[in-house]
Amino acid sequence: MPAVLLVDDDDDTRELLAEGLKRRGHDVNAVDSGRAALEWMRDRDVDVVVTDVQMPGMSGVELCELLQAKHPNVVTILLTGLGTMDTAIGALRAGAYEFLTKPIKLDVLEVSVQRAFEHLAVRLEVRRLRASVDTETSIPNLIGGSPAVREMSAVIRRVADSDTTVTISGESGTGKELVARALHELSDRRKEPFVAINCGAVPASLLESELFGHVRGAFTDAKTTRAGLFLQAGAGTIFLDEIGEMPLEMQVKLLRVLQERTVRPVGGDEEVPFSARLLTATNRDLETEIDEKRFRQDLYYRINVVAIEVPPLRDRGSDVLLLAQHILEKVAKRSSRPQPQISPEAARKLVDYNWPGNVRELENSIERAMAICDGKQILPENLPGKIQQYTPSRLELSTATATEMITLDEMERRYVRHVLSSVNGNKTHAARVLGIDRRSLYRRLEAPVPRPPGT
Fold it and tell me: Which class would CATH give 314-388?
């Protein structure tokens, strides 16, 4: 049970509040001065300190400052009969969690103490999560200690030093480029260039020149000869992001380049060898793209020697809190502003939400919340409306009456579609979750809708 220490030089107030909190089930001890509080805490564990401000000798604000220095995990609540703005500002600057004015109602104090416990629990959970991230498996700039992130980090470390071509798959906003950069930074190529291009952001007519270069006069705007990204990367790494959006005609040319390990600049006659390592990424299901004739199967096998799947944020559990804290620290440092805490209620909202936009959406949400909060604490109302109002979805298979009963085939169909929706339509991922192959998944999705019994 969390322990509370009550500090007040007024005997009647001290005894009244202490007895009241004890009756409500709290573990409470009481002392009459700041010095006595520090002495008490020398060899005893205390979670929350409730202290009066106006006391002889050491004031409550001075006690709060000392607690911040000596016992940073303790949450402090200040009580005062002088509810002035200067006193409130002094309390907050000293590191107080909350500031209450006397005469204090026991119900108000009890709610404040309970909030302090919840705040402490969130803070300790974030610290525990940080400590649990094994330094042997963690990757710089890849924050998280969930099983999915640990597994991905282990694969990254195993293949980073090889020359193997790697395809990184994952939903938009999951951090695929961070994985590519980690592979580069952990390899022997780290001192060489890391060159990246988004294949979907470059017009098809220019993509070949961007990748392979061109010679002077190759086309109207080719005023000088220019080396493409494959040569600019030198002995480093070239990263082709969103390769699933590459036009088919370019896929043919890329396949030849990878087979021959040479590039021919647009308008040129000579083949130029390159030595860069190729990494690719996609948010598309490339096997489905192959089935639908939008991606070449031979190129897929060439680039997909090792596959790394970046987990979506909804599958990373408490990593959401670690990432949120990291984003807060980054934004506070960039804007030279104090870093607010995340309230327990807001933390629950963050963990419960399904994050369709992944880490990119989390960054946007935290930066927005920090901009509109009071500067001390992020509350649920500071989060975007869709996060405040989100409730976890459930798959309803129950029926109210016999006439609404469904067949096992229809129940299976509904569940398959529910899983497919949960993984944003990725059929390969859905098949893996269901424990079937992709052809079986297609059969279940394409099967005719069964007729209800008795019709």
Answer: mainly alpha
Question: Looking at the DSSP assignment, which residues form a beta bridge with residue 167?
Answer: 280, 307
Q: How many Cα atoms occupy the beta-carbon half-sphere of 2 within 13 Å? A: 18
Identify which of 206, 166, 211 has the alpha carbon closest to the alpha carbon of residue 189. Answer: 166
Q: Which class for 168: exposed (0-12), middle (13-18), buried (19 or more C-beta within 10 A)?
A: buried
Residue whose C-alpha is closest to residue 74's, from 105, 90, 51? 51
Q: Would you call 358 exposed, middle or buried from its count of C-beta atoms within 10 A (0-12, 13-18, 19+)? A: buried
CB 290, CB 296: distance < 8 Å: yes
Q: What is the pTM of this model?
A: 0.64
CB atoms under 10 Å from CB of 132, counted, come to 12
Q: Is residue 27 a contact partner of residue 1, using CB atoms and an 8 Å limit?
A: yes
Specify the CATH class of 147-311 in words.
alpha beta
Amino acid at residue number 402: A
Q: DSSP state, 248?
A: H
Q: Hey, how many other C-beta atoms are within 10 angstroms of the C-beta on 36?
A: 16
Q: Can you name the CATH fold of 3-131?
A: Rossmann fold (3.40.50)
Question: What does the DSSP assignment read for 178-209?
Answer: HHHHHHHHTSTTTTS-EEEEETTTS-HHHHHH
Other beta carbons within 10 Å of 387: 20
Q: What is the enclosing helix (H) or strand (E) of 254? A: helix 248-260
Residue 321 has pLDDT above 80, yes or no: yes
> What confidence tens digit (pLDDT) does each residue in 257-305 have?
999 999 999 888 889 999 999 999 999 999 989 988 999 999 999 999 9
Domain with CATH 3.40.50.300 in the chain: 147-311
CA distance 345 to 343: 5
Amino acid at residue number 243: I
Q: Quick one: tokens of 58?
A: 């050491």
| C-alpha to C-alpha distance for 339 and 342, rounded to whole angstroms | 10
Per cent of the chain over pLDDT 90 is 41
For residues 324-345, give the mean pLDDT: 88
Where in the chain is CATH 3.40.50.2300? 3-131
Mean pLDDT confidence for 82-101 = 69
